[in-house]
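--- STAGE predict ---
source: upstream dedup step, 1 unique chain passed
mode: sequence only
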Amino acid sequence: MHFSTYIHLSNIINSSVSNLYQNRSFSKDINQNDVKDSEWYSYYKKTEEIMSNIEIDMELHEFIEKSIFEPFKKQLLESKINKGVQEHPVFQSYSLLLRKAMEIFRLEFRDYVSVITIFERIKSYGPESFVMGCSSDVYNEVLTARWEGWYDLFEIENLLKEMKMNCIIRTKKTLEILEKIIQDLQNIHFQKQLANDVFLSNNNGTCLERLNIIYKEISEEVSKENI
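--- STAGE serialize ---
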C-alpha cells in the first residue's frame, strides 16, 4: 500500500485510540522499576527471547502471526465490543515486538522482504494498528532495510516524508541512518560496487538533493528535542 494512503492518518482515527497510544508512550518520568515489574514487560521479554532463539525464518513468521498479530487483532475486536475487557499485554508491547522481529529478519536472516512485509501488515490491520505499531523505531528498521536490501532512495524519501506527515518523531537514530546513506552515496568506491549507474542519473541526483534537505530538517528537529 502506498504511503500516501496514510497521510495525516492521525487526524482521521478515533480520538480514543490516539489517547490510548499516547498514554502508553514511554517518557523519562516513568519509573523503570514499575515498567520491569509490569505484566506487559514480562510478556515482551519472554516473547523477545523466543523470537531470538528461532533459527528458521518461516517458523519466525508463524510465531509472529500467532503470538503478536492474532492476539492484537482479537484484543482490538473484543475491546470494541466490550470496553471492560481485560487487556492483553501484546497491546503495550506491539511496536516493540514488531521492531525486534524486523531486526531479527534483517540481521540474522538478511531477509529484507520480510521486514517490509511486517511493516505493510501493520498498516493493513487498520488505523489502530498503524498508530500503535508504527513507532519511530519501526520506521527506522524499515529505512535501514530499504537501504541495505535495495538502495531504494525514492522509497526512503517517501518514508521520511510519511513520518513527518503522520507526526512520527524522526529521532537521532533516523538522522544517523540518513547520514550513513548520504555518506555511502558520496563514496566513489561504493558507487562502483553497484550493478548499474542508477545513482548517477539526473532523477536520483535530484532525489539526493532532497534527502540532503530532509537531513537538515531532521537535524533541527533532533536539536530541538535535546534542548
